[in-house]
Amino acid sequence: MKRLAPILAAIALTAPACVPSEGCEPGDEEPTLDLGKGVTEYLTMAAEGGGLEVIHGPQGGYHVEVGFEATYLDASEDWTIQLTGTAGDASASSTPFVTMRCNAQTGTLQSWGHLLIWDAEGADLDGRTADISAVATDAAGTGVSGEVSVELFYPES
Questions:
Q1: What is d(CA 132, CA 78) in angstroms, rounded to the nearest whole number?
Q2: How far apart are CA 76 and CA 136, in angstroms?
Q3: Which contiguous run of DSSP H or E holds residue 4?
Q4: pLDDT (tens digit, 9 = 90+) per residue, 72-107?
Q5: Cα–Cα distance, 136 to 138 (Å, whole number)
Q6: Residue 13, SS3?
Q7: What average pLDDT does the segment 137-144 reach?
Q8: Which helix or strand (DSSP H or E) is residue 145 part of?
Q9: What is the distance of C-alpha 153 from the center of its chain?
Q10: How many angstroms separate the Cα of 55 from the Cα of each of 28, 58, 109?
Q11: Residue 128 contacts residue 87 (beta carbons within 8 Å)
Q12: Exposure of 86 by Cβ count < 10 A (0-12 exposed, 13-18 middle, 19+ buried)?
């Protein structure tokens, strides 16, 4: 291990530093929260055709995968987000604890893969417009909200 120490030190000194881009840290600017989608990365609602897929979960319920993109908020600790949705007479809710990550390419904080669980069957949600809203509280206690309307689709219909 002692023989590796000089090599590791040289690598650390020559490796480029990852400096968060503007927007990834709290600031005096007006904070923002946008709702998106994505299982393994944050995508805007308009990405990949614009709809939001309803998924039949392993425990028998139906959910959608929601993501978040934010600016000028404190991501030093997990956030609490109140997620709600309506689609006709169907409703959905969840309260995930969210770890925001800095996307240095966009200068925004992002998170994805959060389940919004519906009280209706997937086939009943297919083709409906969902109004989804979120109220987030960051690590500093700052509150921000966002909302989106998106068409749901259930591929098994």
A1: 21
A2: 14
A3: helix 4-14
A4: 999 999 999 999 999 999 999 999 899 999 998 999
A5: 6
A6: helix
A7: 94
A8: strand 143-153
A9: 19
A10: 39, 9, 25
A11: yes
A12: middle
DSSP string, 25-40: S--SSPPEEEEEE-SS
Q: Which residue has the tokens 């009943």?
A: 124
- DSSP codes joined into one string, 49-106: GS-EE-EE-TTS-EEEEEEEEEES---SS-EEEEEEEEETTEEEEE--EE--EEETTT
Gap between the Cα atoms of 27 and 21, Å rounded? 12
Q: Tell me which DSSP letter residue 48 carries.
A: G
pTM of the model: 0.82
Q: What is the largest CA-CA distance in the chain?
A: 66
CB 67 within 8 A of CB 43: yes
Q: Which two tokens stand for residue 96?
A: 């995930």
pLDDT tens digit string along 3-31? 544 444 444 433 333 444 555 888 888 99
According to the model, what pLDDT value does residue 2 have?
Answer: 55
27: left (phi over 0), alpha (psi -120 to 50) or beta: beta
**How would you classify residue 155: left for phi > 0, otherwise alpha for psi between -120 and 50, otherwise beta?**
alpha
